[in-house]
């Protein structure tokens, strides 16, 4: 394995938002920038690593590079295209916005959802479609290329809020997690929907990069790694395993906490709700299922609602749900050259 | 006229002209302000007409006109007051007040009326023991106190069975007194119970006349008729004769038969005798018009003791009996009885000894010796009063039940059983609860005795009657709904099954009785079925647009709007959704086949295009996507024309045809990608995840597949012209 040490050094803190941070995304290639969406209705573009990142102390940034303000309610999710030219955002105003990063304006606005939109993802060839999941229990697929104001397709299988989406282009599939306790994977190529019952509201789904596994966080405090072939659980993270002998324990019972793969699908990274000593971000070894890192983000923080892993550099970010600030943890490994 | 002065100037001059001779001082004002005595001109409208008394004679139209009433008497005390106008529209039906006769009477009339008034009793009142015919008694004050109608006593007697004309007392057994003429035959020996004869009323006749005692006057004269037997019933007047005769009373005097005729008497009826007045009316009371004319006759008649007077003294009044007669009596020893026969030997008539003092002699009861003691002692004296127990109390204190009493009395046990013997313990509990009496015999729950058991068919019929009637239509609808997942009682599998059975029975697809819970009573069963009935009404499907608005949720959201609270409507509320087996498996961690399910997904063609994947076979050609689809190569067109639109067996057939065609034309079966997406015929659900496809925008396998032979297109499209 090229790298075994999970980076835990805190190098950058951004306090640009006035409200809880609901979404955090690195720019696609390189991950130089980070986009954050907050309940203060704004989307901020900031540098992920400050220029003077070599300083031993934690750098604090209070002003973003760019502010994108069009939402009328809190921003709930952000997705960036692969070419970094556009990004999409959704929020409580039931709108789906497609932004031009350079100009800072919306190029498309889709209003087809009847309720809060919880998740957004780019999908398709060349990020040609935008997939959004909403609290109206539907998934809408929007076409970025046509000027149609109607979605290409609406998926209505879910019976409760669609809380998270992940489009995996390798398998031409869209994974969705819903509060009805099911993770659905829509395979466009084979025309099948695979429904995995998890029995608890799903807050986060994420496909592994090879498309064979599905990471799903549920409100019973577990993150499960499901085999996409037959639906078996390959490994489960969280629960009591994280809390034994540890100061922090992974908790997820009521908030939408996102989880991602990290370090080339070798690590599962997830936020958490407030534990005994504040919230923390957790990292598990995928194979062993052990907690390899529990990084506290502060006493006052109630939850780490979202995390993002930047594969290019090997750093990660965590958005804190309760504090007014966005915290970056970024650690350079001892050898900087071993980024995959 | 220029010289005409104005009135004001005239008035001003008046002052000067009124007292033309007042040279000094101020002239006196005129006597009357309104009247001038100067004789100057006064216009007509200022003049007033007055009569000699100084009264105004002319009035306005509303105050009487020229001369209202009798010389202006209107409105004065003596005059006429006009009635105020009353609109008949407002008071339409109001009548003029009722006038009484007194209103039109003058004083004399009123006084006469007052005098004519007298205090009188109504005729219905009569005195005690009197007849209303007795006119002499009517004036008495006592008459007020009694009505002559049916008195209360009579009413009471009638209620007790007494009838008018009967005597009072117990019934008497005697022979039927059919008629005197019917001789006592053999059959007449039979005796019957008859009401006693009505005894004659004792009437004390007040002596109001000045005739001597015992003077009977005219009635004596008539007794001639009464004493003689009536020769014929016809002879008596059919109206006044026989019917008026009251049984037991003295026959009233028979009116003398009078000639009867029609109205008036014609000359033919004239018998020529003058002493009969043909026009005499009413019952002719024949008087003795000749004094002493009947005397001889009268003497011949033997005076008989009258029974009209019931005074016993009358019998013992001193009667002169001639010596001869007395001797005859004494010699004969006996008077004759009424029937004319002699009394039996050794008997004398009671009449004869009445005068003796035998009847008055009384025997005193024997004197009881002082030291006499009765042999029997009255036991009640010995009884202790405090220990007295009434029969009811004693019965209550007895611990015997009917069975043991019967045993004590030696009676045979009755075969009957108590109702409790047939009751179930639950039913007995119910009664205990209702009555609050816990002291009921135990319920034995026996079966009905032989012969009383309901035949099986009857039982079934009764049970069928208990099944609530549900509309067949509704039941069928609810069943159809149940198939698609809309089903109550999802938390209770067995109940759901029963519900389904009930629906089937109601829909007529099943002929057996609806199932019931084991060990449940019929009542519970019926209650449950009624609940099913309501549930079916609630769960029957909505039609059309409404139905499409609701999706059947398989899990969490507990939409209970279509299933109200159980406490309110009796519907069992599907509060807990039935645990999906998948959910149950997931909860216990059994992830895998249990939690995995696959449903078809139909991505739109545009979505597939955006994903740059070939649409799955199941995807229908979207009409809106026609232009884009047509831009694809002929292979795609083939798909859209033949394969994608059809599924199932038809597709297989067409595939066979296709293969045959290809073999025919090419000699081998090509395996081009664009042609056989479904040619492998593998089951759709197996579908191994295809290997990751490297997407090359410049190259499309489907488009660049080997083109099939022309024969294929010829076979399909029929003409070379259309081949591109």
TrEMBL record, chain A:
GO biological process: mRNA splicing, via spliceosome
Name this protein carries in UniProt: Uncharacterized protein
GO cellular component entries: catalytic step 2 spliceosome; cytoplasm
UniProt xrefs under SMART domains: WD40 (SM00320)
PANTHER family: WD REPEAT DOMAIN-CONTAINING PROTEIN 83, WD40 REPEAT PROTEIN
InterPro entries noted in UniProt: WD40/YVTN_repeat-like_dom_sf, WD40_PAC1, WD40_repeat_CS, WD40_repeat_dom_sf, WD40_rpt, WD_repeat_MORG1
Compartments where found: Cytoplasm
Organism of derivation: Penicillium egyptiacum
Keywords of the record: Cytoplasm, Repeat, WD repeat
PROSITE patterns assigned to the protein according to its UniProt record, in alphabetical order: WD_REPEATS_1 (PS00678), WD_REPEATS_2 (PS50082), WD_REPEATS_REGION (PS50294)
The keyword Repeat appears for this protein: yes
Family: Belongs to the WD repeat MORG1 family.
Pfam families linked: WD40
Repeat region (WD), residues: 14-45, 68-109, 110-152, 155-196
From TrEMBL, chain B:
Record GO terms (molecular function): RNA binding
Residue segments, region Disordered: 215-304, 550-581, 617-643, 668-696
Record-level GO cellular component terms: nucleus
Entry's transmembrane regions: none
Secretion signal, residue range per the UniProt entry: none
Residue stretches of biased makeup (Polar residues): 628-642
Protein name in the entry: G-patch domain-containing protein
């Amino acid at each position: 394995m090229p790298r075994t040490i999970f980076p835990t050094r805190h190098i950058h803190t951004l306090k640009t938002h006035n409200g809880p941070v609901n979404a955090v995304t690195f720019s696609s290639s390189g991950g130089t920038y980070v986009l954050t969406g907050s309940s203060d209705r704004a989307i901020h573009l900031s540098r992920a690593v400050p220029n003077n990142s070599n300083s031993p102390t934690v750098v604090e940034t209070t002003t973003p590079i760019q502010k994108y303000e069009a939402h009328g309610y809190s921003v709930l999710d952000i997705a960036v295209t692969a070419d970094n030219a556009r990004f999409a955002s959704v929020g409580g105003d039931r709108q789906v916005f497609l932004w031009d990063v350079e100009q800072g304006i919306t190029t498309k606005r889709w209003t087809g959802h009847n309720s809060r939109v919880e998740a957004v993802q780019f999908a398709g060839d060349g990020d040609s479609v935008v997939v959004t999941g909403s609290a109206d229990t539907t998934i809408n697929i929007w076409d970025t290329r046509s000027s149609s104001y109607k979605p290409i397709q609406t998926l209505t299988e879910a019976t409760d809020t669609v809380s998270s989406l992940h489009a995996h282009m390798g398998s031409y599939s869209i994974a969705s997690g819903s509060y009805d306790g099911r993770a659905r994977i829509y395979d466009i190529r084979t025309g099948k929907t695979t429904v995995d019952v998890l029995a608890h509201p799903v807050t986060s789904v994420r496909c592994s990069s090879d498309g064979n596994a599905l990471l799903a966080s549920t409100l019973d405090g577990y993150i499960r790694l499901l085999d996409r072939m037959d639906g078996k659980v390959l490994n489960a993270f969280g629960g009591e395993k994280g809390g034994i002998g540890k100061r922090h324990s992974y908790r997820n019972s009521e908030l939408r906490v996102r989880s991602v793969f990290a370090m080339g699908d070798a690590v599962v990274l997830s936020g958490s709700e407030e534990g005994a000593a504040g919230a923390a971000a957790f990292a598990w070894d995928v194979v062993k299922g052990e907690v390899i890192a529990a990084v506290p983000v502060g006493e006052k923080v109630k939850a780490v609602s979202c995390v993002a892993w930047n594969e290019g550099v090997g750093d990660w970010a965590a958005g804190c749900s309760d504090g007014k600030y966005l915290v970056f943890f970024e650690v350079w490994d001892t050898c900087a050259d071993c980024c995959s | 006229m220029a010289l005409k002065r104005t009135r004001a100037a005239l008035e001003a001059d008046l002052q000067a002209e009124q007292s033309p001779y007042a040279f000094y001082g101020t002239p006196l004002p005129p006597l009357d302000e309104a009247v001038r005595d100067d004789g100057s001109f006064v216009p007509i409208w200022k003049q007033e007409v007055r009569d000699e008394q100084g009264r105004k004679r002319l009035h306005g139209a509303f105050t009487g006109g020229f001369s209202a009433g009798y010389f202006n008497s209107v409105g004065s005390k003596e005059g006429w007051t006009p009635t105020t106008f009353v609109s008949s529209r407002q008071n339409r039906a109001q009548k003029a007040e009722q006038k009484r006769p007194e209103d039109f009477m003058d004083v004399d009339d009123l006084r006469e009326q007052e005098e004519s008034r007298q205090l009188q009793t109504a005729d219905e009142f009569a005195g005690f023991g009197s007849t209303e015919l007795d006119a002499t008694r009517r004036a008495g004050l006592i008459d007020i106190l009694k009505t002559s109608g049916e008195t209360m006593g009579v009413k009471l007697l009638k209620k007790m069975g007494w009838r008018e004309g009967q005597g009072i007392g117990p019934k008497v057994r005697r022979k039927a007194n059919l008629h005197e003429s019917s001789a006592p035959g053999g059959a007449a020996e039979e005796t019957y119970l008859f009401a006693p004869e009505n005894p004659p009323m004792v009437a004390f006749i007040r002596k109001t006349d000045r005739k001597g005692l015992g003077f009977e006057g005219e009635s004596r004269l008539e007794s001639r008729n009464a004493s003689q037997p009536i020769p014929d019933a016809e002879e008596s007047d059919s109206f006044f004769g026989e019917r008026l005769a009251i049984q037991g009373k003295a026959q009233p005097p028979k009116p003398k038969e009078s000639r009867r005729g029609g109205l008036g008497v014609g000359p033919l009826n004239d018998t020529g005798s003058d002493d009969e007045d043909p026009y005499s009316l009413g019952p002719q009371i024949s008087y003795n018009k000749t004094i002493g004319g009947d005397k001889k006759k009268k003497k011949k008649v033997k005076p008989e003791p009258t029974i009209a007077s019931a005074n016993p003294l009358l019998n013992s009044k001193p009667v002169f009996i001639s010596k001869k007669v007395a001797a005859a009596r004494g010699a004969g020893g006996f008077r004759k009885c009424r029937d004319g026969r002699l009394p039996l030997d050794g008997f004398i008539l009671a009449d004869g000894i009445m005068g003796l003092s035998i009847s008055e002699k009384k025997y005193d009861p024997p004197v009881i010796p002082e030291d006499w003691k009765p042999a029997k002692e009255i036991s009640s004296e010995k009884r202790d009063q405090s220990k007295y127990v009434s029969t009811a109390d004693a019965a209550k204190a007895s611990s015997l039940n009917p069975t043991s009493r019967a045993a004590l009395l030696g009676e045979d046990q009755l075969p009957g059983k108590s109702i409790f013997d047939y009751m179930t313990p639950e039913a007995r509990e119910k009664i205990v609860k209702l009555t609050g009496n816990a002291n009921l015999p135990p319920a034995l729950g026996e079966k009905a005795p032989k012969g009383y058991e309901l035949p099986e068919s009857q039982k079934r019929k009764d049970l069928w009657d208990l099944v609530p009637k549900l509309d067949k239509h509704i039941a069928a609808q609810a069943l159809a709904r149940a198939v698609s997942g809309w089903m109550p009682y999802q938390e209770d599998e067995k109940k759901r099954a029963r519900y389904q059975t009930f629906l089937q029975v109601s829909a007529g697809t099943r002929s057996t009785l609806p199932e019931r819970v084991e060990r449940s009573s019929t009542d519970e069963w019926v209650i449950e079925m009624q609940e099913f009935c309501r549930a079916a009404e609630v769960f029957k499907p909505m039609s059309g647009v409404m139905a499409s608005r609701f999706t059947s949720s398989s899990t969490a959201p507990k939409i209970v709007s279509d299933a109200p609270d159980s406490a309110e409507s009796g519907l069992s509320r599907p509060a807990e959704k039935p645990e999906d087996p998948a959910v149950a498996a997931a909860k216990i961690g059994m992830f895998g086949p249990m939690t995995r399910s696959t449903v078809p997904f139909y991505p739109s063609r545009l979505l597939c295009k955006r994903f740059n994947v070939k649409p799955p076979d199941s995807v229908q050609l979207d009409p809106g996507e026609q232009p884009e689809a047509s831009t694809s190569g002929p292979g795609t067109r083939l798909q859209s024309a033949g394969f994608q639109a059809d599924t199932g067996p038809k597709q297989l057939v067409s595939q066979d045809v296709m293969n045959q065609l290809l073999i025919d034309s090419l000699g081998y079966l090509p395996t081009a990608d664009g042609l056989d997406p479904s040619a492998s015929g593998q089951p759709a659900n197996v579908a191994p995840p295809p290997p990751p496809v490297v997407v090359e925008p410049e190259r499309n396998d489907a488009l660049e597949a080997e083109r099939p032979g022309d024969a294929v297109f010829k076979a399909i499209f029929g003409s070379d012209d259309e081949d591109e």
